[in-house]
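Fold description:
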Amino acid sequence: MASLAAPFRWLFNRPYLLLTLTSLFWAGNAVVGRAVVETFPPILLAQLRWTGAAMLILPFARSALKEDWPVIRRHFGALTLMSLCGITIFNTLLYTALAYTTALNVVLLQAAMPLTIALVVFVVFRERLTGGQFAGIIVSFIGVAIIVSGGDWHVLMHLKLNPGDAMMLLAVIVYGIYSALLKRRPPLHWLSFLAVTVTWGAVMLLPASIFELAQGARIEMSFSSAAALFYVVVFPSVLAYICFNRGVDLVGPNRAGPFFHFVPLFGVILSVTLLGERFTVAHAVGAACILGGVFLASRRQRVRNRVEPPGMSS
């Protein structure tokens, strides 16, 4: 058993690899979500995604939940707020936004997440950005702008805030709150924390899902839609949230924030390899800026808040 646990222990102490994997899985979620926007109503897609994720996580988390139950009860209010922000509201807004606005606008607004996280952390915890972190955010944001505009600044100049853009902007703010709250999350085993937030987030989605069904929303199931649902349940939900929560545990929300810029970078790569879209000079320049920005923001002498993952010390 020790030999089987060793690779996971190694991975759980590599914050930048964990955060990079998170961005890769979330980029896939954006591609899949856009592809099935006509097949899945947005709230029902979020409901199926998180209900499926809860069903996968709960069997593995039973013993951890039993041991952590007193802590869960004591911090249930905080856990409810985190579930509401990180699971229920953010994903519903994102999927709904895709039905009203362009992928260009969604990606550009999502790139504001690091700045939003830093702002929330400053307001709530009075933790200022270092010069390197601020420079990294700006450089990587420029890279995102180059990619989404195709190197044409006129595209950025004429962006208009439609209802979908407003929803995505609100989603970015909500997820910034969730990411900042991870800095002070209750002292739970990582499986307990994931199980509680995902399950409770799915439960809080039920009223909105019932309302959407009552309005006549229906799902068109096929092999491709089932495959898409499998992907969003397993990769951007279960695996991505494990990686992201652990990465924030190790390096803090400010240093984790710039990795959101890998999402559009991986989105371009997936579009080129899977959809046959053309890779341009703007993509290359933008990718270089994103990588440089993440490097600038991630540099530090030592990871001070590095801790052993709960339950993996033996």
Remarks:
- The two ends are 10 Å apart (CA to CA).
- The chain has one domain: 19-298.
